Amino acid sequence: MSDCSAMEIARSVAAGERSAEAYADDTLARIRQHNPSINAVTAVTEDRALAEARDIDARRLRGEALPPLAGVPYVVKNLYDVEGLVTLAGSAMRHKSAPAAEDAILIQNLKKAGAILLGTTNMDEFACGFTTENSHYGATRNPHDTDRIAGGSSGGSAAAVAAGITPLSLGSDTNGSIRVPASLTGIFGLKPTFGRLSRRGTFPFVASLDTVGPFARSVTDLALCYDALQGPDKGDPICAERSNEHVLPHLSLAGEGLRVGVLTGYFEENVEVVALAARDIALDAFRETRPVRLPEVERARASASIVTASEGSMPHLDALRTHPQDFDALTRDRFLAGALLPATWVHQAQRFRHWFLRQVLEIFNEVDILISAATPWPATLIGQKEEGLNGDKLIVARSLGFLTQPFSLIGLPAVVAPIPRKGAPPVGVQIVAAPRREDLVLRAASQLEQAGLSHAPVAAAFQQSGELH
Prior knowledge:
By secondary structure, this protein is α+β, with helices and mostly antiparallel strands. It has one domain: Amidase signature (AS) domain (Amidase signature (AS) enzymes, Alpha-Beta Complex). It has an eleven-stranded mixed sheet with strand order 1-3-2-8-10-9-16-17-13-11-12, sandwiched between helices. Strands 4-5 form a two-stranded antiparallel sheet. Strand 14 and strand 15 form a beta hairpin.
């Protein structure tokens, strides 16, 4: 069952070949078996999962048409509100907070689609990090090599999918927190356009950058989940007017006719050779490519960092004054630095942000998608502080977002597609499109998958020879 796709599970449940409860039981067994070695799942919602699964089975027995994700197990980053659970957001200081009164909107949408929630997953404290080495709840380990990080801040959600615990999971992406762990754990991840999906019921990090989205082991599953997540939400002003724009039907077009811009300059200079090689492998799937050099990319990343530091620290100022010792030390230092930023820097960063968006949108008149490596290097060792690049020693926790942050700044949609490397940690490529063109990034990823260049099997050590019971 660990290799089953979401689409296969939903088809099997709808056909009566296997019950939703059996799939839920299997998932609970895999959590018990595999989670101790990777520390991906922080809370298990067993009673809820079995109740939801039995409801799906009862509806099938009554002859009702089942929704598209009926019986599909999934987990969510623990910054999503789950009714009855404390929303930890990776922080020990929230442990005594009141439990959530209702589910986050995206969880409500997946429940309507028939998916079964199995639990919540580990993350960097308050989503402020790229490694999921959480000092309160422990590091999440990469299923492909448990001595290595899973990336962050949605590392637990990515690791759960890469280990075959669930076929789907939800994360969040502010500066690369879906794209970085997708790259490092060898799975697919989607960062939608800013405001495309409702964030209501998720613990905020940076209001003007935060996005939410899914992980999966196939493009079809990724698109199926994304379609189920969509819908306007009057409680989230940014997406109150958004209508459903389903992308799954467009995957049959794959990458046919796509004009591909290959990002050069900064995007080739700030990567190790193995990550650049992954990008070059991906280019073999496309007929029409051209080099593209974005202007002032270094400044775009710096601006994203300034906006993140300034906005991200604001909700925590009181806690920083009264009990700073309760923060993870690295998170505390980042928030303190953000609180001390000069207002003129923040103003300049916001002005540059609007200029940079205009420049990039002009480029999309000439190309449909942009492609680069997703991370500067594959997964580093847990506890490793620095990594070499171009003769310099860079801090891992700050540098994994080199290639993702420029696009976070301007809210563009992006997919990370894994490029497997035999006998070595995986690394992914990043595919970016104009606002609200999730269909294009998913079509391009599907082209890579169909060409046999991108695939995301369950990590070898976690594959099962048969069903768990």
